Amino acid sequence: MDPNTVFLICNYGVLPAWLLLAFLPHHALTQKIVHQVWIPCLLGIFYIWAFVSGPPPPEGGGFESLAALSLLFQNPTTLLAGWIHYIAFDLFVGAWQVRDAKRQGINHWLVVPCLLATLMAGPIGLLLYSVLRFAMKQQTTLNEVPA
After folding, report:
1. How much is the pTM?
2. Cα distances (angstroms) measured from residue 24 to each of 30, 35, 109
């Protein structure tokens, strides 16, 4: 399989999950698709494929400096693996935000802008949700179980 095809499958394949989180957050379909292991496992298979199918890292490529990372990501399959990493974890964070907001009693429509921000710029979306959570609940903890 070609890296561009894998990119398109992964990149557009997660969009239905984001739409379910935004518009049907508590529907049984969302529970079965987004809050289960299926999407992360499928992305994990593509992630492994990107690592295995690509050439070895270029001389000097690695994680020890920005220059080395830039060199490492010049390889399209390594770049693809990095992108899959992003979309898998961003979706995980978005799904957590929906579940946490429900546990905290935060109106879902207040969470939707955070979801959009998480989809487009993961850490910013998490920051926005954290600010929303603090504003609504005056809590700084991210504990799963209410204190």
Report:
1. 0.89
2. 7, 12, 11
Q: Is 6 exposed, middle or buried (0-12, 13-18, 19+ CB in 10 A)?
A: buried
For 54, other C-beta atoms within 10 Å of its C-beta total 16
Q: Max CA-CA distance within the chain?
A: 52
Residue 24, SS3 per DSSP: coil
H helical segments located in the chain? 3-13, 15-23, 28-33, 38-53, 66-72, 76-104, 108-137
Do the beta carbons of residue 33 and residue 20 sit within 8 Å? yes
pLDDT in tens, the chain (147 residues): 899 999 999 999 999 999 999 999 999 999 999 999 899 999 999 999 998 888 888 888 889 999 999 999 999 999 999 999 999 999 999 999 999 999 999 999 999 999 999 999 999 999 999 999 999 988 776 676 655
| Tokens 């990107």 belong to residue | 50
